[in-house]
Design brief:
Blueprint lengths: L6 H17 L7 E4 L16 E4 L6 E3 L2 E3 L2
Antiparallel strand pairs: 1-2, 3-4
């Protein structure tokens, strides 16, 4: 996506992500975005997309077998 999409398209993509987060009521409380790249990362749909997680406290990030809080 970063290598092949024109910068104007990338900017509009991230604006659309923010718009969807707003429509879902996630902008004020916060949300997490996840994108997977490649089969080893769990990607099952092989085009660029993001997952928005929110609406409840999400807790710390996992890094390997340990929790990462910063």
């Amino acid at each position: 996506f970063v290598r092949s999409a024109p910068s104007e398209f990338q900017q509009r993509f991230w604006q659309a992500v923010q718009c969807v987060a707003s429509q879902l009521g996630l902008s004020d409380s916060g949300f997490r975005m996840i994108t997977n790249h490649g089969a080893s990362a769990g990607q099952s749909v092989f085009h660029f997309h993001v997952h928005l997680l929110g609406g409840a406290p999400l807790g710390p990030l996992l890094t390997g077998n340990t929790y990462h809080t910063e």
